[in-house]
What does this fold into?
Amino acid sequence: MLYSETVLDHFANPRNVGEIEDADGIGEVGNAKCGDIMKMYIKVEEDVIVDVKFKTFGCGAAVATSSIATEMIKGKTIEEALKLTNKAVVEALEGLPPAKIHCSVLAEQAMKSAVADYYKRQGIDPTPIVGEIKECESCH
Amino acid sequence: MEKRFIYADNAATTNITKNVLDAMMPYLTEHYGNPSSIYKMGRDAQKAIEDARAQIAECFGCQAKEIYFTSGGSEADNWAIKSTALRLGAKGKKHIITTEFEHHAVLHTCADLEKQGFEVTYLPVGEKGLVTAEQVEKAIREDTALVTIMYANNEIGTIQPIKEIGAVCREKKVLFHTDAVQAVGNVPINVKEQNIDMMSLSGHKLHAQKGIGLLYVKTGVALNNLIHGGAQERSRRAGTENVAAIVGLAEAVKTACADIEGKIARITPKRDRLIDEILKIECTRLNGDRESRLAGNVNISFLGIEGESLLLLLDMNGICASSGSACTSGSLDPSHVLLSLGLPHEIAHGSMRLSISDDITDEDVDYIIEVIPKIVERIRSMSPLWEDVVERQPEMEKLMKFVSPLKV
It folds into this structure.
């Protein structure tokens, strides 16, 4: 299993690990049966993600994708954050082994799921904004 | 604590020891003749191969002509199973008995035979990872061609009652093959006393080089040609022999077999200290029976942890280990061996195997014991699954019964 230096760095020194006590949105995707769970917490002020934290149960790639995804959305508006794709996550990590691409999908979904939760708490239907959050295809 | 480098993955492969390399070197340098050649350099190479065969035969209590050199354990497994299936299948015997937790070299070969109309019984191995001779006896039918059961499991190290299984097979007149790749050099083996008809082994698991192994086939058991061509390996497996590797394999087998009891006595206390100390961590379990177990095998699951993360952090601390997690297998399913014990996926994902050799020191053991709890704590602190365990979420109940209790 060949990981890039960036993946190993994010695994060894994950950014934004932890929880946000008074989070405005919390998203959890994946399941333990498949070996990956990602939980993302966001703090939102005037449509800007001012803080983000994550907890991940999973492999090196799962930790690294969560870590870099939090870096990529922190300080961004929700609109900008929602443009984050798993491809961008993979690129930012300088590639992932083929078997680990699903981890980048989980990272994108964890972020979207947290945003959806944020909207729900506002009484807003998140689906038109965030879209359907499908379960990871490879988890079936 | 000073960082150390500890290789604790000897069930994956081993280093070539100096005596093995020294035995091989002349055949890689000055004695490079083709064993089939008529001149002295060729004859010397031929003699080296036959001496090696005789040495190995002596270690396993068989005759030299019953040993066929192969490229490794997988080839030997494939050869034994396919040859028997082809010969006996033609006589209407199209049933094979094996276990759920064999190496893939056996399992995938059996699966391929199923596609060709064979029926395979996969014996369950229970929570301890052991099969019994009674299970085998009950599964044998009129049309059973072969029983193939591994001597010791590669992941959890459990040692099967091979002699008893062999006795049942003899009584029922069914051929018995064992994949002894993990057992050779770690368990005393005598193929005659233990009623073994065919046995596979691999050199690189016992300090010889990669790419060499052998298949023992009892006289009287018919064996199909694996590779057609020249007359090498009694015309069963053509191709110019890997002389140096064969000589190295004989040296490795001889060295290992000369001191099995001594090795077991040296390694077992270290293994036990690793197991006892690591199991002090909450929500852990030892996978596989503790008693009938290879002297160097430790396989422990940590709830709330995914194995690959654990391996990466161990590596960063200089420790080479392996895991049955899905992430290390390239699929999403964890190890079939751990699942065969009845473990839930979540527990199987969190497994770690240490396989220690004679090289390991007490200081190495101290170091591992010091490093692992810190790594486990670090991974658990960022695991949402562990969060659910600590908060005693109801859905965790089904997992908690497989591991030691949570400390309050």
About this structure: Chain B touches chain A at residues 304-309, 312, 316, 325-328, 330-332, 334, 344-346, 349, 382-387 (CB under 8 Å).
